[in-house]
Structure to design on (322 residues):
C-alpha cells in the first residue's frame, strides 16, 4: 500500500493563467487541481493522490465559511487510515491566515502542508510545479508529523504561526521574517531543524465542527493622526478589535481615550513585522497583548476565542499559549 495524500485546491497564482510567458496581469484560480497534477508527472512517484477542488479563487476572496469547511473536511478525511497527509494549494496573499486558522482547528497529527506560487502556471520558470512537488514530499514525510500546519515554498518549510508574505513579487515571498524557516527540502528529502512550540492541532481547544461562520473582528492600523472615529465606528459593528499599534503596540492619547471605553475585546499587536507585545507594554488595562502574532493572525485567534466562548479574563492566557 502506497502513501495516500489528499490535495485540497483553493486557487491562487499556482492555478493562474496569463499571457504566455508573462508574470503580471494573469487571472489566479483558473487551472483546476487536475490540470496541475497532470502537468507535474513526478508527483505520482511520491504518493497516491486524491484531489478535491474546494474552490478556485483569488485568495483575497477566501472567507470564514471556506476556512471552516476546510477544517471540517480535513478532520473527516484524517480518520482514513490510508491517508498520510494533506496538501492545500492556495493564493499567497492570505495563505498565512488560512494556514494559521487550520493550525488551530484541525485535529490530526498528519501533516497539513500549504503551498502556492508567485508566478502563474503559464509564466517562464513557473514556481508552482516545484512547490507542489516539495509540499507533497513534506506531506508524506515522517519528519512533518505532529509539527502543526506547515507551509512549503521555494525549498523552505515554515510553521503556520510565523509564516508571512514578505514581498509582492519575489519567488521567495513566503517567508518567516525574524523567525526563519523550520527546514528545507532538497530533491524531495525533508530536513527539519526546528519545531513549533506554541499550542496547535491536537492540543488546541478550538472546535469548529458546529459553526458555519466566525465572529467579526476589525483590524485598525495606527499611524500619525489616525482617526479615532474609525475605531469607534469599527467597534460598533464588530465583536472584537485588533489594533496594529506603532512600536511595541502604542498609539496616541486620542486613540487611548476611545480604547479605554471599549467593552468588546481589544487585542494589541504591532504594525512592525518583527514585533512582540507583552502585557507590560500595554497602554490600556482593558486590552490584551498579542505576543508576536501579526494583526491578521491575532484577528483569527480572537475570532476563534470569541466563537468558542473564551471568557474575556482568559484571553491573555490564550494569546500567550497559541
Ligand atoms: N492575489 C492572488 C491570490 O492570493 C495572487 C497571489 C498569489 O497567489 O500569489 O490568490
Amino acid at each position: 500500500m502506497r502513501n495516500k495524500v489528499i490535495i485540497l485546491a483553493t486557487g491562487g497564482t499556482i492555478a493562474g493563467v496569463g499571457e504566455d510567458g508573462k508574470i503580471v496581469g494573469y487571472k489566479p484560480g483558473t487551472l483546476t487541481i487536475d490540470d496541475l497534477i497532470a502537468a507535474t508527472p513526478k508527483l505520482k512517484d511520491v504518493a497516491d493522490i486524491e484531489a478535491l477542488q474546494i474552490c478556485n479563487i483569488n485568495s483575497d476572496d477566501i472567507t470564514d465559511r471556506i476556512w471552516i469547511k476546510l477544517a471540517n473536511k480535513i478532520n473527516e478525511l484524517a480518520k482514513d487510515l490510508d491517508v498520510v497527509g494533506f496538501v492545500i494549494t492556495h493564493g499567497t496573499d492570505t495563505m498565512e491566515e488560512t494556514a494559521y486558522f487550520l493550525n488551530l482547528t484541525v485535529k490530526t497529527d498528519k501533516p497539513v502542508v500549504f503551498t502556492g506560487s508567485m508566478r502563474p502556471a503559464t509564466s517562464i520558470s513557473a514556481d508552482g510545479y516545484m512547490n507542489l512537488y516539495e509540499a507533497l514530499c513534506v506531506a508524506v514525510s515522517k519528519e512533518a508529523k505532529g509539527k502543526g500546519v506547515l507551509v512549503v515554498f521555494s525549498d523552505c518549510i515554515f510553521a503556520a504561526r510565523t509564516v508571512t508574505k514578505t514581498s509582492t513579487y519575489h519567488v521567495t515571498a513566503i517567508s518567516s521574517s525574524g523567525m526563519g524557516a523550520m527546514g528545507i527540502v532538497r530533491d524531495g528529502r525533508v530536513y527539519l531543524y526546528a519545531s513549533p512550540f506554541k499550542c496547535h492541532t491536537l492540543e488546541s481547544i478550538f472546535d469548529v465542527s458546529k459553526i458555519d461562520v466566525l465572529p467579526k473582528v476589525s483590524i485598525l492600523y495606527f499611524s500619525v493622526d489616525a482617526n479615532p472615529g474609525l475605531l469607534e465606528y469599527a467597534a460598533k459593528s464588530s465583536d472584537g478589535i485588533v489594533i496594529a499599534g506603532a512600536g511595541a503596540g502604542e498609539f496616541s492619547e486620542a486613540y487611548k481615550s476611545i480604547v479605554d471605553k471599549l467593552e468588546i475585546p481589544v487585542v494589541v499587536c504591532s504594525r512592525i513585522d518583527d514585533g512582540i507585545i507583552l502585557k507590560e507594554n500595554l497602554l490600556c488595562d482593558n486590552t490584551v497583548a498579542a505576543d508576536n502574532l501579526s494583526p491578521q493572525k491575532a484577528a483569527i485567534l480572537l475570532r476563534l476565542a470569541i466563537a468558542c466562548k473564551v471568557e474575556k479574563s482568559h484571553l491573555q492566557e490564550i494569546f500567550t499559549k497559541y
Notes: The radius of gyration is 20 Å.
